[in-house]
């Protein structure tokens, strides 16, 4: 299951460079992860300074 970005996202960009499949993009008020591209590696969650990225259900 793909990771998701919660409302705790501060749009710092730390996660974008960590994603090996470029599944993260900038949204209107927070970043988002394309579930079709996400490989569930967790690299983005490890890089997030606000713990705004968590495994989806």
Q: Would you tell me which CATH topology applies? A: Alpha-Beta Plaits
Q: Per the principal axes of the C-alpha atoms, what is the gross shape?
A: globular
CATH class: Alpha Beta
- Count of helical stretches: 1
- Average pLDDT taken over every residue: 95
Q: Which oligomeric form is depicted? A: single chain
Rg over CA atoms: 10 Å
Distance between the termini: 6 Å
Structure summary, number of beta strands:
4
Structural class: mainly beta
What fraction strand?
Answer: 15-25%
List the helices and strands and how they pair.
Blueprint: E1 3-5, E2 24-26, E3 31-33, H1 43-47, E4 53-55
Antiparallel strand pairs: 1-4, 2-3
What does it look like?
The protein is mainly β and 57 residues long. It has one domain: Alpha-Beta Plaits. Helix content is 9%, strand content 21%. It has one helix spanning 43-47; strands spanning 3-5, 24-26, 31-33, 53-55. It has a two-stranded antiparallel sheet. A two-stranded antiparallel ribbon has the order 2-3. The chain is globular. The mean pLDDT is 95.
């Amino acid at each position: 299951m793909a990771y998701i970005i919660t409302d705790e996202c501060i749009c710092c960009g730390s996660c974008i460079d960590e994603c090996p499949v470029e599944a993260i993009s900038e949204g209107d008020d927070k970043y988002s992860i394309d579930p079709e591209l996400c490989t569930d590696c967790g690299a983005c969650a490890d890089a997030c300074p606000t713990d705004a990225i968590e495994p989806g259900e």
